[in-house]
């Protein structure tokens, strides 16, 4: 397949390892673009919620400003749960892929201010499933919000 700026943009697949880590540990992001995979530079972003727009922003990670030749990127000393995306570029003029889907790296906290319990406790839930969310802890004012695609909604609208 020949890719041109008018063609559909390929969507990279981002993977993270590990997806659960202790605060301060390192995490490796890997970004795969559909064949042919040669010649791409990779850009790495943290997904940051933007409550004022009920959406989120992609913040380019330090060390990724000009892209990386390697399709993997190590983040050292991650301290909190975060979401990441990647995208790739190549050619002259530069052709950019789409952004990958968001992948989350979950960080444990030995003294959480709040704890969210999901019941049933399953790795995967489907849109037709009923789930119970329970927030416990000795802090007040916690809110549960849901991301669907690029949209953010309050639980009162579900």
TrEMBL record:
InterPro entries: Ig-like_dom, Ig-like_dom_sf, Ig-like_fold, Ig_Fc_receptor. It comes from the Eukaryota. One of its GO terms (molecular function) is transmembrane signaling receptor activity. Keywords: Disulfide bond, Signal. Residues 10-102 form the Ig-like domain. The keyword Disulfide bond applies. The keyword Nucleotidyltransferase does not apply. GO terms for biological process: cell surface receptor signaling pathway; immune response. GO terms for cellular component: external side of plasma membrane. PANTHER family: FC RECEPTOR-LIKE PROTEIN 4 (PTHR11481:SF64), IMMUNOGLOBULIN FC RECEPTOR (PTHR11481). This is Si:dkey-10h3.2. It comes from Iconisemion striatum. The lineage of its organism: Eukaryota, Metazoa, Chordata, Craniata, Vertebrata. The gene is SI:DKEY-10H3.2.
